[in-house]
Amino acid sequence: MTEADAGEGRITTETRGALMLIAIDRPAKLNGFTPAMLRGLAEAYSEYENNGAARCAVLHAIGDHFTAGLDLPKVAPLIAKGESLFPDGAIDPFGLRAPKRAKPLVVAVQGWCLTLGIELMLAADIVVAATDTRFAQIEVKRGLMPTGGATLRMVERAGWGNAMKYLLTGDEFDAAEALRLGFVQEVVETGAQLDRALEYAATIAAQAPMAVRESLLSARTAHEHGPDAAVADFRETQLKLVNSDDAREGLAAFKERRAGNFTGR
């Protein structure tokens, strides 16, 4: 890492077969996000989205902590000016504005997971937390409010009272509480979170890519626009899938009692 990278932090990507690993890399500052890291994260999500060979991505962090949140002295001036934190046309890592991610994402968290760290994982599809993870949505302690999706997704996952308990107090909670609230899907021993997230990602990547993407899109449509909107697309989408090479391979694999070898066509 260069001296500039060490100061501003960086987001790195690594491809492992059909998987893409996206790493938050500023451990000396508890992976606090700078403007350069926010831009880098949106660019990494866009790289994943546009990589035809990448079927699932894993977001993780270098060091003992996922992230302590925004590096406010560096980011606050941009917020005060109303400037966008992400490049135009790049995927929004919070999934709040177009263009949105259309491919699956698994997240591994550990240590401190504060503010935008919670919002990033709530915007993902599956989250694995280490037992030592400590969460807090502390914007109210800084005179701010969460704008990365916490006010929406905490209520959706945990219900009004549970969400307000942490949104309005900024109180800390642990991995067991995050699991109870539905914010994370599995808690593992500290140090095992990335390996477990990679296992989930590998399982997803082994499925038919078109079917995975359409399933994700259907669930998102129902969530954002209601069940009728999703149901309206069922017939057309299923016709497209059933006539795909992957559906034919899936049927052959079923008959031959073997795993499918899917091509995404």
Quickly describe the structure.
This protein is of the alpha/beta class and 265 residues long. Helix content is 45%, strand content 15%.
Keywords:
single chain, 265 residues, alpha/beta, 2-enoyl-CoA Hydratase, Chain A, domain 1, Lyase 2-enoyl-coa Hydratase, Chain  A, domain 2, 2 domains, six-stranded mixed sheet, three-stranded mixed sheet, 9 strands, 45% helix, globular
Can you walk me through this structure?
The protein starts with a helix and ends in a 9-residue tail after the last helix. It is of the alpha/beta class. It has helices at 3-8, 35-50, 72-80, 116-122, 150-158, 160-167, 175-181, 193-205, 209-225, 227-231, 234-242, 245-256; strands spanning 10-16, 19-25, 56-61, 105-109, 112-114, 126-130, 134-136, 173-174, 186-188. Helices cover 45% and strands 15% of the residues. Strand 1 (10-16) and strand 2 (19-25) form a beta hairpin. The mean pLDDT is 94. Helix 5 packs across helix 6 (160-167). The radius of gyration is 19 Å and the shape is globular. The chain contains twelve helices and nine strands. The chain has two domains: 3-205, 2-enoyl-CoA Hydratase, Chain A, domain 1, CATH 3.90.226; 209-256, Lyase 2-enoyl-coa Hydratase, Chain  A, domain 2. The chain has a six-stranded mixed beta sheet, with helices on both faces. It has a three-stranded mixed beta sheet with strand order 5-7-8.
